[in-house]
Give the backbone structure.
Amino acid sequence: MTGAGYAVLVLLALLLLGTGFLLGRRTARPVRTSDVGTPVEHATFETLHTASLAAPPLRAGLTEESARRSARRLRSLLGTDALCLTDRDRVLVWDGAGEHHGRHVMDQVRDLLASGRDTAFRSDCDDLDCPLRWAVAVPLTVDNRVLGTLIAYAPRESAVLARAAGEVARWVCVQLELAELDRSRTQLIEAEIRALRAQISPHFIFNSLAAIASFVRTDPERARELLLEFADFTRYSFRSHGDFTTLADELHSIDQYLALVRARFGERLLVTLQVAPEVLPVALPFLCLQPLVENAVKHGLEGAVTSSRITISALDAGSEAEVVIEDDGTGMDPERLRHILRGEGGNSTGIGLLNVDERLRQVYGDDYGLVIETGIGAGMKITVRLPKYRAGVHGS
């Protein structure tokens, strides 16, 4: 097949990619050669397969490593003699013949990096045996920012190759945009966890240490146990890895938190815990339940309340685990709660409830947001449903 003919197939294949034929997250049934009727159909599916292999490295962003791992596949897509990928400052990879041309690449694409427009240029050199005499360079653009260039080299000028290079470059840009979205999602999750950690009030830390200190002389063993609980609680809350945890680990951290609270309030705080062993391995977003328990403690003990009961249950509900956190405290005006869940809370309670609700919806879908029952003077009951199995959600 000629280079021009192959480029036409590339355009067809990338059109299919653009309509979601290949880039959906579901894995299609492998296509056998015997399933493909004509040579053109076979070549088209081969092109699609090559594109699918080039995609994963690019999902890491435009780096020297991702360029190196994807360049050969991209050159195979275009059926061209050589292909070069650059960022804004340097050549990331050269694949194919005529690598000596790489010394002049950045000078040749300087205007393209400034304007963001495709450009074609002659690529003559003193080596009479060099097959590279013409090139087309296409910008790699994400959010109106030119990140680098894709340059295809050929023995002669070709309008079809120029069009195909543009389509391949645009497909590369889609992968780079997905990489940016992945990074943004990671940064958002990290920001949300930082917000939750900020909720661990300095007053709570001070009061916990003060409560521990009060036992140093009267009950040294109790002081030692509480100090270990405090160390484990803070270590878990400020750990630096993993977006997800297990229900077992989250409940263990909550138990340590409640031990520190009980050291301060004594019999004013009564806690009932009911957990079905079969739900302990269920994965959930890190620091997802702890803010809800902190909210229950705050509302259960605020004001002139002499004592408060908090009930925490984690039970098996078929394909889901159902976690319920209930207190008999002051409760909340339902209208105020609606404001909080719309992001209009303006206080630590609002940050915690809104943050957890948004993270649950982000991970599992809108059907899995918080279900909250409350009223003024009626306490609060928060129900969290967690699918037992969800792709991409694994406890760490």
Remarks:
- The chain is about 50% helix and 20% strand.
